[in-house]
Specification:
Layout (H helix, E strand, L loop, with lengths): L41 E8 L2 E7 L1 H7 L14 E6 L5 E7 L1 H4 L7 E9 L5 E9 L3 E7 L16 E2 L15 E4 L5 E5 L17 E5 L6 E7 L5 E10 L2 E8 L24 E6 L9 E7 L15 E5 L2 E8 L1 H8 L12 E7 L1 E2 L4 E2 L21 E2 L2 E2 L1 E3 L2 E4 H5 L15 E5 L4 E8 L7 E15 L6 E18 L8 E23 L20 E2 L14 E5 L2 E5 L1
């Protein structure tokens, strides 16, 4: 339980001038992409669960830290995955990392996840995250609790390995793409790398698809080859309009042998390192796959840096979105002096709306942009919001709640935390929320759950004046509160910023606005001597003497705080 501390403070309509504080750099330049302004992550996958979209990715930031924030990303030290979620497509909650190295002790790396979930016949919800153990095998983790875990390893070794039926010859047994069809049958695609000795640039011979067993933790039968021209990596599966849609990343090789592809259907050769797709009704039959062409060229064509790509197509709240990765964040960090010029290959996840015809399975060719997706709903500030929820940020860091309480500071991005996160703020640090809906009544108070000493301003533009200021000082996590002028906090704010202007070991865990409460006891009540000491809630409801817990109440006509 948290000790409640009610801090009365003046609402500041005109506080510090905009230029008085040096703010953390905006590496997203007010854009929606990438989804995180501070976490390098790649190879996205996603699941839709209880109205939220959970996006998982390779933890490139782990390698970035290991390399001293410089040099090329070699991927070898990545043994964790990152998780974000959203319900509005613009404000993203960072949930920390899944420590794959601890869950699957046999695994050397964890790259390119693919996540699915199901409800079993007995009502149990099961969440599966498949991942590449380097380039040599595919593993799986399972949770029966939530999309965030905790996860366990159902197997004592990799789920898909060289030597298994139908797998070989396959240069890289990696990049899984899983899906569950309408009958409940699970499927998984995987494979990539340079052409087999018996293959060619056009037909590398490394793409595979297999049925999953009823447990979803092993394959059933033999894996089958898929004739994917110029396949290199990034296998993903979707079911669209009842048909299987397989997407993949093509190689950098020349396309001189394109005319040898008899089923090209008059289409031109895909561009280098682009994303292509194929469609089938009977996925285990290699001859059933119909090549549909390129749906998005390499991200370098859009000024996001040239590199490999890995996309995930997902339908959420009635609209299709394409998740992908690029070096967009790294480019801006290097350009503004934050990242070393030697740093390369550290990727970040972006998202744009995709146009998909479900009847024909056609994916319209896409243009990637920095703007990103538009909000599909407004953020409710009267719900308790985690400090890790934001659309943009500057100069923040994430640390583990549990470890901080033990007086040890451990960064979650180094694969040390998984769930109990908080945001560390230093002077000039800020977070941005988009489409914040205060309604017509407006907010009359603001609570922040914080630890340490710091001053936080609420602004409506990043460099503008404060519309409210709260001073915090506590040695433990404490709910601290200020009064607000409701006329200032009404309607939908395009943006709201939490800006830290001073800080000493200052950490934020959550925040929440409140609307004005109705006056206590609006209904006439015939008082008696027995009412002395009786408590009412703020809506005027008479409470049992033993039923009231901590909180604010009415007693003998006055407000009292029970701690």
């Amino acid at each position: 339980m948290y000790k409640k501390l009610f801090v009365t403070a003046m609402m500041t309509a005109a506080c510090l001038q905009a230029g008085a504080q040096t703010l953390g750099t905006d590496y997203k330049n007010s854009n929606g992409n990438p989804i995180s302004a501070s976490v390098f992550c790649a190879d996205p996958t996603a699941i839709d669960y209880n109205g939220r979209l959970y996006v998982y990715g390779t933890n490139d930031h782990q390698q970035y830290i290991k390399n001293g924030k410089k040099n090329s990303n070699g991927y070898g030290n990545i043994k964790s995955l990152v998780v974000f979620s959203t319900d509005d497509m613009v404000n993203w909650t960072f949930h920390g990392t899944i420590d794959v190295g601890k869950v699957c002790t046999w695994a050397g790396q964890s790259w390119a996840p693919s996540a699915v979930w199901r409800t079993t016949a007995n009502g149990t919800e099961e969440f599966f995250v498949y991942f590449a153990n380097g380039g040599g095998s595919v593993g799986v983790m399972k949770s029966t609790t939530s999309p965030l875990g905790p996860f366990k390893s159902p197997n004592s070794q990799a789920m898909i390995r060289h030597g298994m039926a139908g797998v070989d010859p396959c240069n890289w047994v990696f990049d899984p793409g899983a899906v569950i069809d309408s009958t409940g049958q699970g499927w998984i695609a995987f494979g990539g790398g340079d052409p087999q000795s018996s293959g060619s640039k056009l037909w590398p011979g490394n793409s595979r698809i297999a049925k999953l067993s009823s447990s979803m933790t092993s394959i059933s039968g033999s894996a089958k080859n898929m004739p994917a021209p110029y396949l290199f990596e990034a296998s993903e599966l979707n079911i669209i309009g009842g048909r299987f849609v397989y997407t993949y990343n093509t190689s950098w090789s020349d396309r001189n042998d394109w005319t040898k592809f008899e089923k090209r259907n008059g289409q031109g050769a895909p561009s280098s390192c682009s994303m292509c797709y194929m469609v089938s009704d009977t996925p285990l039959d290699p001859d059933s796959w119909e090549y549909r062409g390129e749906y998005v060229p390499n991200e370098g064509n859009f000024g996001m840096g040239w590199g490999n790509n890995h996309t995930h197509l997902h339908k959420f709240q009635g609209k299709y979105y394409l998740f992908y990765h690029s070096e967009l964040l790294l480019q801006d960090m290097k350009g503004k002096g934050e990242a070393d010029n030697s740093a390369g290959g550290y990727r970040s996840i972006g998202v744009n709306v995709a146009t998909v015809n479900e009847k024909t399975q056609k994916i319209n060719k896409m243009t990637l942009n920095k703007t990103g997706a538009a909000a599909i709903k407004n953020l409710n500030p009267y719900d308790l919001q985690q400090a890790e929820t934001m659309a943009n940020s500057g100069s923040i860091s994430y640390e583990d709640f549990t470890n901080i309480s033990k007086n040890t500071s451990i960064s979650s991005l180094g694969n040390d935390a998984s769930r109990n996160l908080q945001v560390k703020m230093k002077a000039g640090a800020w977070t941005q929320l988009r489409k914040v809906d205060f309604g017509t009544v407006g907010a009359d108070s603001f609570m922040i759950r914080a630890k340490g000493t710091g001053t936080l301003e609420i602004r409506l533009t990043r460099t503008g004046k404060a519309v409210a200021t709260i001073d915090c000082s506590s040695t433990t996590f404490t709910d601290q509160k200020i009064k607000l002028d409701p006329s200032v906090f009404t309607g939908v704010k395009a943006s709201m910023y939490l800006v830290c202007t001073s800080a000493t070991n200052f950490y934020i865990d959550a925040w929440q606005f409140s609307e004005p409460q109705p006056d206590a006891i609006k209904v006439p009540y015939a008082a008696s001597k027995e009412d002395d000491g009786v408590m009412f809630d703020l809506n005027g409801r008479r409470l049992n003497r033993h039923s009231n817990g901590r909180g604010l109440y009415i007693q003998n006509g006055k407000k009292v705080l029970v701690k």
